[in-house]
């Protein structure tokens, strides 16, 4: 999905749309605390800040190959997101085995992407794509398509499915429109990508942003409410909206220039709020198997990286959110090497009630 310039919007021509893979969300029904549930659901697919997202462009099979111009359009989109000033790092690699994000350009499949950490949870094989681009990315519509799909990679759902948008669809007209040219979607695909409302807990009270890069544009006649779109198309402005920028900066703020050291057998208190993150560098004194563990009544996701040639390589991670035990990683660490452990807090029974230890 992308958004053309307003000067072309009045043509009211049906557009190609992004179709998300259908995945089964995590079962959080056992969580009775609604505030805890909301925090976990909102952050469930987000990366820990500072994660290096390596990406690869498939060259084989031939129908997955994009060519230099299409690949450059994706690089440009990564740069736009990065230049907002976020803490995530994007790096192109030469093999799918090294890549977290694996990109194809199969025009027969349209454009789609897994959302956030679904990229590693549901497409773990190096032979699988996590993202596909199904049309030309060098047009104005295509440039926003690239931004949109990478928005999914960063963890964002479709904005038009925000339950606070107040959109009431003329559902049969939506099914009819998306079932024809150029998408040819089944009713199930249309329901998943348009009619379905995402859980209110995942949007954390955010208001509808009709100009979000994550919003489809819609031709006239598909929307019953808000009434201004009954007889006029809904055309978001091109590019990232101000809300897009503010949201990504909140979730992935710039990294601190230096981080403290987590020493062996010294407990470090965690004094952060929901959605915030604490990072430590580890410099092992011995080459042996270590345990890194959080303590306290907290829901956290903890990820361990090794610093190699200036880049952080993923080692292991653990997400304890929604359960009454703590994040724990056991890994063999080597003397003379450096590691970074990053821990994002979903929920704590009281701020500052936890700690982290290396032993």
From TrEMBL:
Record Pfam families: Peptidase_M10 (PF00413)
Keywords: Hydrolase, Metal-binding, Protease, Zinc
Domain of life: Bacteria
Hydrolase as UniProt keyword: yes
Every Peptidase metallopeptidase domain range: 43-201
Name the UniProt record assigns to this protein: M12 family metallopeptidase
Lineage: Bacteria, Pseudomonadati, Pseudomonadota, Gammaproteobacteria, Alteromonadales
